[in-house]
Amino acid sequence: ICSAFGIEQLVILVNKMDQTEPSFSQIRFDELKALSNQIPIIPISSRFGDNIVEESTNMPWFQGWSMNDQQGKTFLEILDAMTCLEDLSNEAFRMLIENVYKISGIGTVLLGKIQSGMIRTNMKIQINPLNLIEEIKLIEVNDETIQEAYAGSYVSFSVRSMDKKRIRRGMICSNVTNDLSGQISSFTAKDSSCISEGSQLIVYCHTSRISCQIIEIKSNECTLVKLVPLEVTHVEKFTDFPSLSRIWIGTLSKIIAVGTIIDIEKKI
């Protein structure tokens, strides 16, 4: 599941070790540790600070963690041992729209995370798949007005559009020069599922929920599924933008498959 979400580094913290019987019980920690042999796991007490910044004197039995050829005992140390994410600020601009607001005196405000690239005030962007060109008026991060924002930032910015109803969650903002316009006719995903041709299911991709029909299935070491979206949408290939290509296939109440988009066909 973590791999499907693109999570490559993970650590488990077992909190409230001061509340076990007896306090800071090694037996209780070992019971939980046995459930996860491959993920680093650290016993902590956030109330008293045990193994957060400094090594705990209450748990001398803890042998420590190992990650990326490094060892330690505290949460702070393992954060320092994690590999930093690649800086995508110099790549083409992509932002997932999570919410859209209409604020009196400001206009239409878009909220989301910048997946790659950067934005600045007065910059023109394109909202896909509407092929709508907008100009950024005001940018805010954590209620602070800024002039520029970069990949990895959760931002809100206002645009000059007066038509809030056309812009919705799941759409993607991009550079005007990186034209992503055009409706997708089908896309092919690689997954490990047991689904049948002709099925109409829901595909969850980034912040979108898309009704799709499965028109072709090829099974080998993994399953290749060709899907036709039943509504206008925008997705990306995994080789171009991994964060915009991971999908979950299922119903409104159940996920039955996970995968990545490996190819896209657009309507001409």
Automatic annotation (TrEMBL):
Keywords: GTP-binding, Nucleotide-binding. Residues 107-173 form the Translation elongation factor EFTu-like domain. It comes from the Eukaryota. It holds the Pfam family GTP_EFTU_D2. InterPro entries: EFTu-like_2, P-loop_NTPase, TRAFAC_GTPase_members, Transl_B-barrel_sf, Transl_elong_EF1A/Init_IF2_C. GO terms for molecular function: GTP binding. This is Translation elongation factor EFTu-like domain-containing protein. The lineage of its organism: Eukaryota, Metazoa, Spiralia, Gnathifera, Rotifera.
